[in-house]
């Protein structure tokens, strides 16, 4: 039977090692499957799992990577790309009408429909720009991120990037919408005040009850509706993005890359490193 990190029999350091090895497994498999040697433009996301994605790409050597240019989603991934000796380019240098061949990124939670919560590392805005610029958006994660519905295992809330001056009004609106104790994310130890994103914005984390899937026949919830305070993913996302002062939201939703040729927020595939040493692959339906 597959182990989970909540197994109290496993010492904490062992659990941490298990999670790290799961991330690495998923990353190497994703790169093996989706980094086609003829590709030239690659998006690189943010977070601790992406470290292994870059490691796996760098391990292919200059024979494969020298013709490739890598587009970051923030300061951390910029550093990762440079430290690995890969060619860095800002996404605003991607000419109009052109797409990235593929983009790899992590997630905080992935549901059965490949909707994502992202932004645990406060990089969601640039992550969405890079993901939607890619022909193939590939999600890489460990087994803790798999859940049937968003909000089931990731309880910290949906990360929302906001203009600092709008934060109090956005908090008010989120409470009216039923968010349970939304909060401005505090800075890391050593930083007084709120966390400031790579774009000079703040992050609000807005917890909601576990979300319904977009076309959730089991719950009887119709597209675009809310049911006893429980939101459906697309309906909630469409409301959140319209709140004045919201720059971007950490829900990646809507059509996936199999249905549209450009602009998909949902991945075409998600790789999960499992606790038993296997890799589970979920393809967009
Ligand atoms: O969205 C993100 C950063 O904004 C990350 O992809 C997400 O938080 C997952 O991070 P990790 O791989 O460290 O678990």
TrEMBL record:
Hey, which pathway is this one from? Carbohydrate degradation; pentose phosphate pathway; D-ribose 5-phosphate from D-ribulose 5-phosphate (non-oxidative stage): step 1/1
Catalytic activity line of the entry: aldehydo-D-ribose 5-phosphate = D-ribulose 5-phosphate
One GO cellular component term: cytoplasm
Q: One Pfam family this chain carries?
A: Rib_5-P_isom_A
The record's section on Gene3D superfamilies has: 3.30.70.260, 3.40.50.1360
Q: Which InterPro entries match?
A: NagB/RpiA_transferase-like, Ribose5P_isomerase_type_A
Return the broad EC class: isomerase
Q: Which GO terms describe its molecular function?
A: ribose-5-phosphate isomerase activity
What CDD domains does this protein's entry cite? RPI_A
- An individual GO BP term: pentose-phosphate shunt, non-oxidative branch
Q: Which UniProt keywords apply?
A: Isomerase
Keyword Isomerase tagged: yes
What EC number(s) would the UniProt record show? 5.3.1.6
Q: What is this protein called?
A: Ribose-5-phosphate isomerase
State the organism of origin. Answer: Apodospora peruviana
């Amino acid at each position: 039977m597959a182990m989970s990190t909540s197994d109290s029999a496993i010492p904490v350091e062992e659990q941490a090692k298990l999670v790290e090895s799961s991330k690495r497994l998923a990353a190497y498999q994703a790169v093996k499957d989706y980094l086609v040697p003829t590709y030239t433009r690659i998006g690189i996301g943010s977070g601790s799992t992406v470290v292994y994605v870059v490691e796996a790409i760098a391990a292919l050597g200059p024979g494969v990577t020298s013709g490739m240019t890598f587009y970051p989603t923030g300061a951390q991934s910029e550093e990762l790309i440079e430290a690995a000796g890969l060619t860095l380019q800002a996404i605003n240098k991607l000419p109009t009408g052109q797409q990235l061949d593929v983009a790899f990124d992590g997630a905080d939670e992935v549901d059965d429909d490949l909707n994502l919560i992202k932004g645990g590392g406060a990089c969601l805005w640039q992550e969405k720009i890079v993901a939607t610029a890619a022909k193939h958006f590939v999600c890489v994660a460990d087994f803790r991120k798999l859940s049937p519905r968003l909000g089931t295992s990731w309880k910290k809330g949906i990360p929302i990037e906001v203009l600092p001056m709008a934060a109090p009004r956005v908090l008010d609106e989120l409470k009216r919408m039923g968010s349970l104790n939304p909060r401005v994310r505090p800075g890391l130890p050593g930083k007084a005040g709120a966390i400031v994103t790579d774009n000079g914005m703040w992050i609000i984390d807005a917890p909601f009850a576990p979300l319904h899937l977009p076309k959730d026949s089991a719950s009887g919830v119709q597209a675009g509706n809310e049911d006893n305070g429980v939101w459906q993913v697309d309906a909630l996302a469409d409301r959140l993005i319209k709140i004045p002062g919201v720059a971007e939201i950490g829900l990646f939703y809507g059509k996936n890359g199999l249905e549209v040729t450009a602009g998909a927020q949902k991945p075409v595939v998600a790789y999960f490193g499992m606790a038993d040493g296997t890799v589970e692959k979920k393809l967009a339906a």
